[in-house]
Amino acid sequence: MKVMVHTPDVLEVLTEGEEETRDLGSLLARVLRPGDVVALQGNLGAGKTRLIQGIARGLGITRPVTSPTFVLMNVYPTGKGFSLCHVDTYRLGSPVEEGYDLGLDQLLRGEDICVIEWAERIRPLLPADHMWVEIQEVDEHRRRIILQGTGPQSRARVGELAKTLEHISDSAAGDV
Length: 176
Ligand SMILES: Nc1ncnc2c1ncn2[C@@H]1O[C@H](COP(=O)(O)OP(=O)(O)OP(=O)(O)O)[C@@H](O)[C@H]1O
Ligand SMILES: [Mg+2]
Description:
- The chain is of the alpha/beta class.
- It has 5 helices and 8 strands, in the order ββαβαββααβββα.
- An 8-stranded mixed sheet has the order 1-2-8-7-3-6-5-4, with helices on one face.
- β4 (73-77) and β5 (83-88) form a beta hairpin.
- The longest helix has 21 residues, at 152-172.
- The mean pLDDT is 94.
- It binds adenosine-5'-triphosphate and magnesium ion.
- The site of adenosine-5'-triphosphate has 19 residues, from β2, α1, α2 and β8.
């Protein structure tokens, strides 16, 4: 993977192949803390679930992670006092209303790490401070992944991730 842009406001990474997107997820998991919310935006097949598989791996979760097909979310305990909540809003008919009725706004303000696919559909339920991640398809195997913080905590996490990536690319002399 390659860091394309890094400013105080945004980190942009190019991944080539799904394994690199998983690797980015694992590195992201290292800087996440209980209570963090990661909101993912990206088309069908962009790689949202692949990124979450990496986050799960980085949190030490060994259970296979797939998109929640008929439920709103899957919960994976980490064994460290918090869980990874994998939310997929794709199948909600009225995402904001249904999400609210299901207590999603409360869940997103709890102590678990929540990662949301199709997050743009429940934007009003997101806490003010969350990490916003957009996955853009460049071609069949490459994805542009743009990470931004919307508040002080999430901005700090993006900064920490950027530092991790720089550190790795220094020691690997070139590509991360
Ligand atoms: N660089 C890449 N990163 C991630 N996935 C990639 C990459 N290159 C190719 N792919 C392929 O893109 C697909 C991504 O699938 P994934 O289920 O993660 O997408 P998704 O965004 O979760 O889709 P959905 O909206 O259907 O849930 C996989 O088939 C994967 O092999
Ligand atoms: Mg998915």
